[in-house]
Write a structure and sequence with these properties.
The structure holds 2 protein chains of 2 kinds.
Chain A (H helix, E strand, L loop, with lengths): L3 E5 L10 H17 L5 E6 L2 E6 L5 H8 L7 E8 L4 H15 L6 E8 L8 H15 L4 E2 L6 E7 L3 E4 L3 E2 L11 E5 L5 H11 L3 E8 L6 H18 L2 E7 L1 H10 L5 H19 L5 E2 L12 H8 L6 E2 L7 H10 L3 H4 L21 H8 L6 H10 L2 E5 L2
Parallel strand pairs in A: 5-6, 5-7, 10-11, 10-13, 11-12, 13-14
Antiparallel strand pairs in A: 1-3, 1-4, 2-3, 4-8, 4-9, 7-8, 12-15
Helix pairs in contact in A: 5-6, 7-8, 8-9
Chain B lengths: L2 E2 L10 H12 L10 H21 L6 E4 L2 H15 L6 E5 L4 H12 L3 E5 L9 H7 L4 E7 L11 H11 L4 E5 L11 H4 L3 E5 L10 E5 L25 H14 L3 H19 L5 E4 L10 E6 L4 H10 L2 E2 L1 E2 L12 H5 L4 H4 L2 E5 L6 H20 L4
Parallel strand pairs in B: 1-11, 3-4, 3-5, 5-6, 6-7
Antiparallel strand pairs in B: 2-8, 7-8, 9-10, 10-13, 12-13
Helix pairs in contact in B: 1-8, 2-8, 3-4, 9-13, 10-13
The chains are: A alpha/beta, B alpha/beta.
Chain lengths: 393, 384
């Protein structure tokens, strides 16, 4: 029955002179999201509103699902657009609308009129009470509750009259592409996809780097990361996934450095490599899924040690989150089931029984000197052999 | 060079089976239940297939029910026989080294109220006939034994076991999981007293999704799948005619020139086992002579995780199975390897090589030389 959706957005409405940039980005993101949905759609801006008009048969659930993944959207309202043919006709249409949408009339409601077009002959308050009366007359089972209504019937008088009563919540945030791009360090775990999703939510486009270590990690582990990137890309738009072969570097560190420092030194080289690809691809920062104290390599001392090797800012949106909070988001964005598939990732293959939890930077620097002979060459080889996979959502 | 040494996982479909299957997919595609000529033609293919298979096992054509493969055959045998014979008793016996399609099914039967005894095995994976004799009671209705273990190639003494069982309680039904044995042994179920026998197609160069269950005449089995009453009501659903025909063709083919083929497999196995002795830190699990299956070799490599070994071999074009799929966070330890008492540190360091008639000596030598080369290197880097 709905031929249009009214798109509600919040933050971008307050961005002053940049407003049109944000709106245009949102329109473009909506267009991209709808490309995967069967049917023909037209997205238009009108008087500080964005509408999605459907021009053909379409699947309601699929359309809503696509729209509620677009960052910047606060709510999606299936809307009926009516020509102004006088108040009596409007009341008739609203009553018919209610009948279609709410077969069971046992509810409380409130009419919420807004007169954006000031030449409409009735004021909002008058519309509210008049329309409320007509509805009560038509459906005596209903009643009015102006404080906590079950159903809020919105009537907005614009060029056309907008009638809607459902707001399907969107993810909020800002349209992707309005805040530059960052490089996500993507592992196969639960945290990093969530971290990527959270930063993308603030309008940041993503690229990603994954470290694989054949034969210690498998082709399936890599496929799992591609699948996770695909899930994140459903929200963030296409991701260029950089797959870096880390085996030789890892084995070299294993050979030369104290075993309990392996993970921390390894992570320093991962950060360096990720930063290399970040700069090469005009990213403005790195993103990790770290959270203080979660594992040995994520203590304050360890974070300082990995942070030290980067010049770009490192964004850690999960820094204060508990595991369960992260899992909740992971489930919400549909990444959890993929994240928990049991494949070895390259951080765990040689992990020491008792890794250092409070690395001393001087000690680390000293031990890294033992790598001087070959590390630059191995880093260069890792850079030269990178495989870039373009992942679309 | 490439060497596919994972033939116990699946085999390549034979040319003869494939050609026949394509013909039935593209030309003679009728539904055997149809009244018209196309249907009759399809029905004839099923009849022919039954005749070919019956010949390999010396059974009657009407004792064959086609299924979707080994798992369904095992499910049908266990659940079907247990439910149909519930009044006679509620005790089932099986071994602790069965494939999951048996062990998960007996676990389900336990949920339904059946009591299940799991026989132990020795370090070679062989059951004890004394323990079996002890286990059989008046309440026992079904014994399910695998003939060849899929992980280490142990061969169970089926014939002797049946004598032991029937001597103690002649009413007990015997099911044999012959999925790794069919095509490697001449099996005559009716001569040795097998009541139910499972076979899978894709282990013998037939397509995946094919298999059958032998149900000896007069043995009561309740169907698992209901519907249009095909296969005398034992397994409803339009028959997979192309699959069935290809399965029978592959079955006939694998028993042609049989002794020479088996000799050849044992030669390969010997060559491989001998070669493995030259490599430090490598042990072969279970028996390795003519009293073991001709096509399976289970190898433990000290200090190298199976997944790492598998991927290293894969990188050189050699395809094998991990003895026990294992990941750091979810150890799924193999029941068979645990049951034969493999040392804890080797449980996650075991891989399986499995051959077929197309495997060449060059492939065996290549696998040996690669292992010779990579194992010392892999052993250097271990989790401390």
């Amino acid at each position: 029955m709905y031929k249009s959706f009214l798109i509600k957005y919040a933050e971008i409405a307050i961005k002053g002179k940049n407003r049109y940039l944000f709106e245009d980005a949102l329109v473009s993101q909506i267009n991209t999201a709808l490309k995967k949905v069967d049917g023909e759609f037209h997205v238009r801006k009108e008087q500080g509103r964005i509408y999605v008009d459907t021009l053909s048969e379409y699947d309601f659930d699929e359309t809503v699902d696509a729209l509620t993944k677009v960052f910047g959207i606060v709510g999606v309202c299936p809307v009926v657009l009516l020509e102004d043919e006088g108040f009596d006709k409007l009341a008739e249409d609203v009553i018919a609308y209610i009948d279609k949408v709410y077969p069971n009339k046992n509810f409380t409601f409130k009419v919420n009129a807004r007169r954006a077009r000031k030449n409409y002959p009735m004021e909002s308050m008058v519309i509210n009470s008049e329309m409320g009366g007509r509805i009560l007359e038509a459906y005596p089972e209903t009643s009015v509750d102006v404080h906590k209504p079950d159903v809020m019937i919105n009537i907005e008088i614009r060029n056309k009259i907008n009638v809607y009563s459902t707001v399907i919540p969107g993810p909020g945030g800002m349209p992707v592409g309005t805040n530059g791009k960052a490089m996500l360090l993507l592992s196969g775990g639960i945290d990093s996809p969530v971290a990527g999703w959270m930063i993308a939510k603030r309008g940041v486009a993503l690229d990603a780097t994954y470290f694989h270590a054949p034969p210690y990690t498998s082709e399936r582990a890599k496929q799992k990361v591609v699948d996770l990137a695909k899930i994140v890309a459903k929200y963030s738009g296409p991701i260029n996934l950089h797959v870096v072969n880390f085996t030789d570097i890892q084995l070299y560190i294993y050979e030369k450095c104290p075993h309990e420092e392996l993970t921390i030194i390894m992570r320093r080289y991962m950060m360096k490599l990720a930063e290399h690809f970040a700069k090469e691809n005009h990213c403005l920062g790195l993103i990790t899924g770290e959270s203080i104290g979660q594992v040995a390599s994520q203590t304050m001392q360890s974070l300082a040690a990995t942070n030290e090797v980067c010049t770009l800012p490192v964004y850690r949106p999960l820094i204060g989150f508990d595991k369960q909070e992260i899992v909740t988001i992971s489930e919400k964005i549909d990444a959890y089931e993929t994240s928990i598939l049991p494949f070895e990732d390259c951080c765990t293959i040689f992990v020491a029984k008792h890794p250092v939890t409070k690395p001393n930077l001087n000690v680390i620097h000293n031990d890294e000197k033992k790598l001087a002979e070959k590390i630059d060459q191995l880093m260069q080889e890792a850079i030269d052999s990178v495989e870039v996979i373009r992942v679309e959502g | 060079m490439q060497a596919y040494l994972d033939n116990s996982a699946t085999t390549r479909c034979s040319k003869r089976a494939t050609d026949l299957m394509v013909k039935l997919l593209m030309e003679d595609f009728g539904n055997p239940s149809s009244m018209h000529m196309k249907g009759v033609e399809a029905e004839n293919y099923i009849k022919e297939a039954k005749a070919k298979i019956a010949k390999t096992l010396k059974i009657d054509e009407k004792e064959i029910v086609f299924t979707s493969g080994g798992t369904e055959s095992n499910n049908m045998a266990l659940i079907g026989a247990a439910l149909a014979n519930r009044r006679a008793g509620n005790h089932i016996i099986t071994t602790s080294i069965e494939h999951a399609s048996v062990s998960a099914t007996t676990a389900y039967l336990e949920e339904l109220g059946f009591k299940v005894t799991y026989l132990k095995v020795d370090t070679c994976g062989i059951i004890s006939l004394d323990e079996l004799r002890e286990a059989v009671t008046e309440e026992t209705i079904l014994v399910s034994l695998m003939m060849v273990n899929n992980e280490i190639g142990a061969v169970e003494p089926i014939e002797e076991a049946i004598k032991v069982i029937k001597a103690k309680n002649p009413k007990v039904l015997v099911h044999v999981d012959a999925i790794q044995a069919y095509g490697k042994y001449r099996i005559y179920p009716k001569k040795i007293g097998v009541d139910l026998l499972s076979v899978s197609g894709h282990k013998i160069h037939a397509p995946k999704g094919t298999g059958f269950l032998f149900i000896r005449d007069k043995v009561k089995v309740k169907p698992l799948i209901y519907g249009g009453g095909q296969q005398k009501g034992m397994r409803s659903g339009t028959e997979n005619v192309p699959g069935v025909a290809a399965l029978a063709e592959a079955a006939a083919q694998i028993y042609e020139d049989f002794d020479a083929k088996i000799d050849y497999l044992y030669t390969l196995k010997e060559r491989f086992v001998e070669g493995l002795k030259e490599i430090d830190g490598v042990t072969v699990n279970g028996k390795t002579g003519r009293d073991s299956a001709p096509h399976i070799v289970s190898v433990s490599i000290d200090g190298v995780r199976s997944e790492v070994m598998l991927h290293t071999l894969e990188d050189r074009g050699i395809y094998v199975s991990a003895g026990s799929a294992c990941a750091s966070n979810k150890p799924a330890v193999s029941a068979t390897l645990t049951a034969i008492g493999l040392k804890k540190n080797l449980l996650d360091s075991t891989i399986r090589f499995s051959f077929c008639g197309d495997t060449t000596e060059e492939e065996i030598d290549y696998a040996l030389s690669v292992m010779q080369e990579v194992i010392p290197m892999l052993q250097k880097y271990t989790r401390k």
